[in-house]
Specification:
By secondary structure, this protein is of the alpha/beta class. The chain contains 9 helices and 9 strands. The strands form 2 sheets. The protein has a 7-stranded parallel beta sheet, sandwiched between helices. The protein has a two-stranded parallel sheet with strand order 7-8. β4, α4 (102-130) and β5 form a beta-alpha-beta unit. It is globular and about 55 Å long. The chain binds NADP nicotinamide-adenine-dinucleotide phosphate.
Length: 255
C-alpha cells in the first residue's frame, strides 16, 4: 500500500495575511499540504513560493457562494479530499450606536457569517458523506459579550459560536469534528487600525501555534491567550447590569 508522505490536506481561508497566513505557513512546515484562499492572489502566490510544494493558492472571495463551492471542488479534484479546513476569512469595522450603518453591518455579515457558511456547505456535504474530516471556524472572544465599537463584528462571531455548537453533535454522528477558535487580540492588519489599548495582545505566530496545538489536541473551543480567556469568561458570567458598569467605561465618544 502506498504510504502518504504528508499529514493530510488542509484548506485555510483568510490565508493571505495575519492569523490565517501564519497558520498556513506553520501547517505547511509541519507536514500538511495547504490549499490557501483569500482574495489577494498576489499575496497567496508569495506564500506558495515561500513553501513551494506545500502551499497551493486558490484565490477566492468567500462572499461569492457559487465560486466558493467551485473552489472547494477544484481543491478536492487537484489535491484530493480535504481532511481539515480552517475558515479564518474575516473582516472588522468599528460600529455601534453612534455610527450604526446597515450597509457596514451587511459587509461584515457577508464575510464573517455568510462567507463562512458558503465554505461550510460543500465541506459538510463531502465530509459527512465520507464520514471523516475536521472543520475549525474562526470566531473571536468578541462573540462572548456585546462590547462598544464591536456591535456587528461581535454579533457575527457570537453567531459563529452558536452555529458551530448547534452542528457539532450532528456532525459527530458522521465522524466529522467541529471546533471553534476564539482568539483574544492578535497583532495583524485587522487590529493595526485600532486606536485603543489591546490587552494581552499576541503575535500572529503565537496565535497560529495555539490554534495548531488546539487542533492537534482535538479541542472543541480553542480560546487564547489564557489571560484573555479568564477575563472574558468572568465578564460573561456577571449579571448584565454589572457587565454594563464595566462596558460603559469602554465607550469612546466620536470626535
Ligand atoms: N486579529 C485579532 O485580534 C483577531 C481576534 C479574534 C479573531 N480574529 C479573526 O481572525 C480572522 C483573521 O483575522 P486577522 O486578524 O488575521 O486579519 P487579517 O490579517 O485582516 O486577515 C483577514 C483575512 O481574511 C481574508 N478575507 C477578508 N475578506 C475576504 C473575503 N471576502 N474573501 C476571502 N477572504 C477574505 C483576507 O484576505 P484578502 O483581503 O486577501 O481577501 C485575509 O487573508 C478573522 O476572522 C478575524 O475576525 C482576529
Amino acid at each position: 500500500m502506498a504510504r502518504r508522505k504528508h499529514k493530510g490536506i488542509v484548506w485555510v481561508t483568510g490565508a493571505s495575511s495575519g492569523i490565517g497566513r501564519a497558520l498556513a505557513l506553520r501547517l505547511a512546515r509541519n507536514g500538511w499540504q495547504v490549499a490557501a484562499s483569500a482574495r489577494s492572489a498576489a499575496a497567496l502566490e508569495e506564500l506558495a513560493a515561500d513553501q513551494e510544494g506545500s502551499i497551493f493558492p486558490y484565490p477566492l472571495d468567500v462572499t461569492d457562494m457559487a465560486r466558493t463551492k467551485q473552489v472547494h471542488a477544484e481543491i478536492e479534484l487537484a489535491m484530493g479530499s480535504i481532511d481539515m479546513a480552517v475558515l479564518a476569512a474575516g473582516t472588522y469595522k468599528r460600529d455601534g450606536a453612534f455610527d450604526f450603518r446597515a450597509q457596514v453591518a451587511q459587509s461584515m455579515i457577508a464575510v464573517n457569517l455568510q462567507g463562512t457558511c458558503n465554505a461550510l456547505e460543500p465541506l459538510l456535504d463531502s465530509m459527512m458523506s465520507r464520514r471523516r474530516g475536521k472543520i475549525a471556524i474562526m470566531a473571536s472572544v468578541a462573540g462572548y459579550n456585546g462590547l462598544p465599537g464591536g456591535a456587528t463584528y461581535g454579533a457575527t462571531k457570537s453567531a459563529l459560536n452558536n452555529l458551530c455548537e448547534a452542528m457539532k453533535p450532528e456532525a459527530e454522528r458522521r465522524n466529522v469534528s467541529l471546533s471553534v477558535i476564539n482568539p483574544g487580540f492578535v497583532d495583524t492588519p485587522l487590529t493595526a487600525r485600532n486606536d485603543f489599548p489591546m490587552p494581552f495582545l499576541i503575535s500572529a505566530d503565537e496565535a497560529a501555534a495555539s490554534i495548531e496545538k488546539g487542533l492537534e489536541d482535538g479541542r472543541y473551543e480553542i480560546i487564547f491567550p489564557w489571560k484573555m480567556k479568564l477575563a472574558i469568561k468572568f465578564l460573561h458570567a456577571l449579571p448584565a447590569m454589572l457587565r454594563f458598569t464595566i462596558t460603559r467605561r469602554l465607550v469612546r465618544a466620536p470626535d
